[in-house]
From TrEMBL, chain A:
SUPFAM superfamilies: MetI-like. PROSITE patterns: ABC_TM1. The keyword DNA repair does not apply. GO terms for cellular component: plasma membrane. One of its GO terms (biological process) is transmembrane transport. This is ABC transporter permease subunit. It comes from Nonomuraea phyllanthi. The chain crosses the membrane at residues 12-34, 78-101, 113-135, 155-179, 208-228, 261-283. Residues 75-282 form the ABC transmembrane type-1 domain. It is a multi-pass membrane protein. Belongs to the binding-protein-dependent transport system permease family. The keyword Membrane applies.
Automatic annotation (TrEMBL), chain B:
It holds the Pfam family BPD_transp_1. This is ABC transporter permease subunit. Belongs to the binding-protein-dependent transport system permease family. GO terms for biological process: transmembrane transport. It comes from Nonomuraea phyllanthi. The keyword Oxidoreductase does not apply. Its main location: membrane. InterPro entries: MetI-like (IPR000515), MetI-like_sf (IPR035906). CDD domains: TM_PBP2. SUPFAM superfamilies: MetI-like.
From TrEMBL, chain C:
Pfam families: SBP_bac_1. It comes from Nonomuraea phyllanthi. This is Extracellular solute-binding protein. Residues 1-21 form the signal peptide. The keyword Transcription regulation does not apply. The keyword Oxidoreductase does not apply. Keywords: Cell membrane, Lipoprotein, Membrane, Palmitate, Signal.
Length: 294, 285, 438
């Protein structure tokens, strides 16, 4: 690769992506920011024509979002949940990817499709499914184990389980695809040096995988910050999940249940900003290896 | 497989443990799916009265009932889903592959900025975007059209990232240089050299996108008013939330959910064979 | 070809988004050119969002008779999401012409200026509905914002066979209901007389109505919010006490768990609305003929009050260019004898129209053991108390769920949850700028 570019070619190639980015991300995001600075004001009874108008309120919605104690409790809950999901899900994904990649596993194809299959189940359906399995009088698991899966102390684990179930296969495939891109001769060389499969995995494969691991971590951090489907689908089945359990649930509640689009917009920008800080913080910690010489 | 006997020797210390671990994972993942299969065989009467792990007798009835529901609207929803997921995933794969290749193999001003911008899109939750997107689509009269569901789902940060990583690893710079020395244009290089090498990665991206669009609920829910344009997720949701004085049609939902898994499994099985290609050498294992 | 069209679409989006940056509301189409239907342009075309089953069949009957006004049904999901979706569509400027609106959501539609005032067009039909129901579409104002379609007067559904088995008699008062709940627990520790659902604010609202609650009211140019009134607190603490005592279960309605309990005969009563037979039939088909219906237990012996749970109206969008035609259809749908007949048969609703209510003959199949089912319903319906919903029911109902969940979990008094509902509702109305009477 030479520094002298190829003229306009790269820009031409990137045009479709940039047009789509502008239209379907940048403009809507800009619109969201604009909405976040506004609010409806009604006068009198607020009924009928002209009783309601949109006014600009500057940063009021943002300061309300930032000073909302319930939102910060939501962050704390999500932090605990997220740590659990990240460690278990990515740990399993990495383990399975390495196992699949090692030449001596039988039934690899079957396992690969089986582990990926949950990803094909829509989040709502997956949660509903597990919900059925958690309910005391319906669950075949409850016949064996005497645990209240939906109690105040267990519900976080139950939700994390749904996320792990649904997400492991996806991350496994990402890591597996990255593994397949590593030149095989590297392993041959290590084998000739007498390294065992485990040693190859730890000393050759995992270092080569680092950028992919970092990025799956970043993406998973963002996904867990945005956790929404699992708690909101389980909510009707238990009284341990409030409508503001996670920050994104509060956004949904504001936008769709209580009809306050403006607060929802402000809160969502706060969420995006915190996601940005956390993911860049993480990248800092791992020294930007992923974005380096891509 | 030149190293067959060496492999056999290496197998001894660990034995069947790796296979066992993988199978455990597979069972964990399959169990709830198996449960849907069972639930889909139960008639409404059996659903909440018979043991959860025993098959019911109503599968055919459920299927007939589902297909007959509102003159077979299930098929329309399935066809719509196929259009959204298939069309969207194809476009998305094309855009991702071209962008990923460009970002991996060219040096140009603003490369990192563009990459970070495109990837940064993932920071904004889709719940947040759905309403502004809807309001904007409405302004240009495209709300409640097929485009309204198709267009916003083409660009996907994760896919672009994957394409870039894949292109970096799979396309040797030397090959591109050789092509340039032979006088090939940049467009031809991409079309004839880069894209064929990226096929296995593109298959993964296609699969991810297909599944993601197939499962997306909120965007079509907001965008579409006409129930003839609904995808399966939104359609089945109307069965679940069928109004306060109407019971949820659990048996139809479970059957529908199960049936909608079948095309995905079929797709996955078809796509499997592309992964056999050993990338580094281009040889088939 | 496809690529060209795509390109054209993209270009259109781009120019339009650029052009409209900064403009606040979508440019509403010039105020409803209320042309009398169909000049030279062919039939008027109307879209109708509803979740009532088989509505397309009922509309087909209309379309056949009215070639100049053709209605297309778009079947939506019901519930709170449906209201949010309609409001979003109205805000964006492309709502359907007609929409099914649950009574509790109608005020928020009115407040968002999403539905039209049909006062002039409906003057002649107001008398066809009971006063309490008509109040739900006028909100106690001069306007008329929808035409009542169905209603849900509340009654007590109970397992007749199990009542006999355990030697219980049908409770006439809530005191007797509580006694029966205790008696049952002694006889069978696995069964409950009933359950309190912290997920169904509609049911609780109906029970509060029965006790005489008036959560919102309009006086002059201001709203009065009185959710934590004495009747509501009384109802809340009654159920709270029973749950705490352990004689009433706390599992929510409509969950798989609840279905299972109904099937297993572990729940003996359900204070519900007239539409309950449909739900019971599909969730517990085997108990057919074993359920019976009675009026709700009363707070004072000898009274005969009830409340409403559920029910909806047909509203006309304020943005429709064909208001007259849409109103004509909505009127036909909810007052024409043939249409009402279809609504009862095909959509299985309990009609709002008084005449249609008394015309109901044969009891629902699930209640074939109770031939006077509809007569009972009509009597109960007459005793249902009027109620006005406020412009932010979404906030109130959502707080209900959160606050009662919390009260159940922490075993605190239910009246505290009622106070939380009041506080959240008032705070939200203040924030929006509604005029509130102190």
């Amino acid at each position: 690769m030479r520094r002298s570019g190829r003229g306009a070619w790269p820009y031409l190639f990137l045009t479709p992506a940039m047009v789509l980015f502008t239209l379907f991300l940048a403009v809507p995001i800009g619109y969201t920011v604009w909405l976040a600075t506004r609010r409806t004001k009604v006068s009198g009874l607020g009924l009928g024509r002209g009783a309601r108008r949109e006014v600009s309120v500057g940063f009021d919605n943002f300061s309300a979002a930032l000073s909302d104690a319930e939102l910060w409790h939501g962050w704390l809950r999500v932090l605990g949940y997220g740590a659990l999901v990240l460690v278990v899900m990515l740990g399993l994904a990495l383990l399975f990817a390495l196992l699949l990649d090692s030449a001596r596993v039988r039934l690899a194809r079957f396992s690969r499709i089986a582990i990926f299959l949950p990803y094909a189940v829509p989040g709502v359906a997956a949660t509903l499914l597990w919900g059925f399995l958690y309910l005391p009088s319906l669950s075949p698991i409850r016949d064996v184990l005497e645990i209240d899966f939906l109690g105040a102390s267990t519900v976080t684990y139950s939700m994390a389980n749904v996320a792990v179930w649904g997400g492991t296969g996806f991350n496994m495939l990402v890591l597996y695809t990255a593994l397949r891109a590593i030149p095989r001769d590297l392993y041959e060389a290590a084998r000739l040096d007498g390294a065992s499969e485990i040693q190859i995995a730890v000393r050759v494969k995992i270092p080569m995988l680092t950028p992919a691991i970092i990025l799956t971590t970043v993406f998973s951090i963002i996904a867990t910050i945005q956790v929404f489907t699992e708690p909101s689908t389980l909510r009707p089945l238990t009284n341990t999940i409030s409508s503001t359990w996670s920050p994104l649930m509060k956004v949904y509640r504001d936008a769709f249940v209580t009809g306050d689009l403006y607060s929802a917009a402000a809160t969502s920008i706060v969420i995006a900003a915190i996601s940005l800080v956390l993911s860049f913080g993480f990248l800092r910690v791992v020294r930007n290896r992923a974005f380096g010489e891509g | 497989m030149a190293s067959a006997h060496r492999l056999k020797a290496a197998r001894a210390p660990w034995g069947v443990a790796p296979t066992g671990l993988l199978l455990l994972g597979a069972i964990y993942c399959l169990f709830p799916v198996f449960w849907v299969l069972i639930a889909a065989t139960k008639s409404p009467a059996e659903l909440f009265s018979t043991s959860t792990l025993s098959f019911g007798t109503g599968f055919l009835d459920n299927v007939t009932q589902l297909f007959a529901y509102r003159d077979g609207v299930f098929w329309l929803w399935a066809a719509n889903t196929l259009l959204y997921a298939g069309g969207g995933a194809l476009l998305s794969t094309a855009v991702s592959a071209v962008s990923g290749y460009t970002l991996a193999k060219y040096r140009f001003r603003g490369r990192n900025l563009i990459f970070n911008l495109l990837i940064g899109g993932i920071l904004v939750p889709s719940v947040v975007l759905a309403i502004p997107q809807y309001l904007l689509f409405s302004k240009v009269g495209l709300a409640d059209t097929y485009w309204a569901v198709l267009l916003p789902q083409i660009l996907h940060p994760y896919s672009i990232y994957l394409a870039r990583v894949y292109a970096t690893a799979a396309i040797p710079d030397s090959l591109l240089e050789a092509g340039r020395i032979d006088g090939a244009g940049e467009g031809r290089l991409m079309y004839q050299v880069a894209i064929p090498l990226m096929v296995p990665g593109m298959v993964t991206i296609f699969l991810f996108q297909f599944v993601a669009i197939w499962n997306n609920f909120l965007l079509p829910f907001i965008m579409l008013g006409d129930d003839g344009k609904f995808p399966l997720t939104v359609g089945l949701f109307t069965l679940l939330q069928s109004g306060a004085n109407q019971p949820s049609l659990y048996n139809l939902i479970l059957t529908g959910a199960f049936l909608s898994l079948i095309p995905l499994i079929a797709l996955f099985l078809t796509m499997q064979r592309y992964w056999k290609t050993d990338l580094s050498s281009g040889a088939v294992k | 070809m496809r690529a060209n069209r795509l390109g054209a679409a993209l270009a259109a989006v781009l120019t339009a988004t650029l052009a409209s940056c900064g403009s606040s509301e979508p440019a509403a189409s010039p105020e409803a050119a209320q042309s009398p239907a169909a000049a030279a342009t062919g039939p008027v075309k109307l879209t109708y969002w509803t979740w009532a089953p088989n509505m397309d069949k009922i509309v087909a009957a209309w379309n056949q008779e009215h070639p100049d006004i053709q209605v297309t049904v778009s079947k939506q999901a019901g519930g709170d999401d449906a209201a949010a979706k309609f409001l979003t569509a109205a805000k964006a400027g492309n709502p359907p012409d007609l929409v099914q609106a649950e009574y509790q959501h109608l005020p928020s539609f009115v407040a968002a200026d999403a539905v039209a005032d049909l006062k002039a067009e409906t003057a002649s039909i107001a008398g066809e509905f009971a006063e309490g129901l008509w109040g739900l579409v006028t909100l106690g104002t001069e306007g008329v914002y929808g035409i009542p379609q169905d209603s849900g007067p509340m009654m007590l559904f109970y397992r007749e066979d199990l009542f006999d088995k355990y030697g219980l008699s049908v409770p006439k008062t809530w005191q007797e209901y509580a006694d029966a709940a205790r008696a049952l627990r002694k006889k069978d520790p696995k069964a409950y007389l009933g359950t309190f659902s912290s997920k169904d604010p509609g049911a609780f609202t109906g029970l509060a109505q029965q006790a005489g609650a008036q959560w919102w009211s309009i006086s002059g140019e201001s709203w009065k919010v009185n959710i934590a009134d004495e009747p509501t607190k009384k109802v809340a603490d009654y159920w709270g006490g029973l749950v705490k005592e352990g004689v009433i279960d706390d599992m929510p309605y409509f969950t798989p768990e609840w279905n299972k309990a109904l099937n297993d005969g572990r729940l003996l009563t359900w204070p519900s609305a007239v539409w309950a037979p449909g739900v019971l039939e599909s969730n517990a088909p085997k108990a057919k003929g074993k359920w019976a219906v009675a009026p709700l237990p009363q707070w004072n012996a000898g009274e005969s009050f009830s409340g409403f749970w559920g029910g909806s109206s047909t509203a006309v969008s304020s943005k429709t260019p064909n208001k007259a035609a849409a109103t004509q259809f909505a009127t036909w749908l909810n007052t024409d004898p043939a249409a009402l007949d279809l609504l009862v048969k095909e959509a299985a609703i309990y009609p709002a129209s008084t005449k249609a209510q008394s015309a109901l003959g044969q009891a629902p199949g699930y209640f074939s053991n109770q031939p006077d089912f509809w007569q009972q319903a009509a009597t109960v319906s007459a005793g249902a108390r009027g109620f006005t919903f406020g412009p932010n029911v979404g906030v109130t109902y959502n707080t209900f769920k959160d606050a009662f969940d919390k009260a159940l979990q922490n075993k605190t008094a239910f009246s505290g949850a009622v106070q939380a509902m009041q506080d959240a509702t008032v705070a939200d109305m203040r924030k929006s700028g509604f005029q509130l009477a102190s």
